[in-house]
Write a structure and sequence with these properties.
The protein is α/β, with parallel strands linked by helices. The chain has a domain of about 100 residues: Nucleotidyltransferase, domain 5 (2-Layer Sandwich), CATH 3.30.420.80. Helix content is about 30%, strand content about 20%. It contains 5 helices and 7 strands; from the N terminus they run αααβββββαβαβ. Strands 5-4-3-6-7 form a 5-stranded mixed sheet, with helices on one face. The chain has a two-stranded antiparallel ribbon with strand order 1-2. Helix 5 links the parallel strand 6 and strand 7. The two termini are about 60 Å apart. InterPro entries: Ribosomal_uS11 (IPR001971), Ribosomal_uS11_sf (IPR036967). It comes from Plutella xylostella (Diamondback moth). GO terms for molecular function: structural constituent of ribosome. Keywords: Ribonucleoprotein, Ribosomal protein. This is (diamondback moth) hypothetical protein.
Length: about 190
Amino acid sequence: MLSALRNTINTPVRNVLRLFQTSAPQSIEDKKWNYKKIPKDDDGVAGEKIVDLDSMIKQKQNLFPTLESDDMLFDGTPYKQLAVANVRVTHNNTIVSITDSAGVIKMIRSCGMDGFKNTKKGTNIAAQTTAFTLATKAIDKGFRTVRVKVRGLGPGRLAAIKGLQMGGLDIVSITDTTRVSWNPPRPRKAKRL
């Protein structure tokens, strides 16, 4: 009787499997070496996040427009008569155009015209390339000093301005003309879960 009891107690113990995993121990030097292989965060386009306000303050420039700003001369041209570089930014594309002071379009360029297709049109690299090519063509046509108007939200906002600057255009002012709806349409009904 005692042996039968002993066999019933031992039987479940034999059927239990021992499951565990082990890994090779790593030294501290190996862990440090792995951290060095991780790339640093992307800072975007070079100079995109740098604004040198100290140099503007030292030059005693006006950071904001005044009543006399419309009559200021830039390269012998009043501010009101300067050409305007319009940058239209969406999540899918960036369109850059240059108009005269009356609003007549003189040149237009989009990311698709520069060879970017599909989702690549919405990147900041595409916006900078498009703005750079438009700026070089604008200088050939005689536009040297412009004011910039940016409209829309997307990845190419700052990159397009940087591309215009890299192309050789002298940017006098930057204006954000993104439309804001203070009374938006009624949202869709909430999903039932």
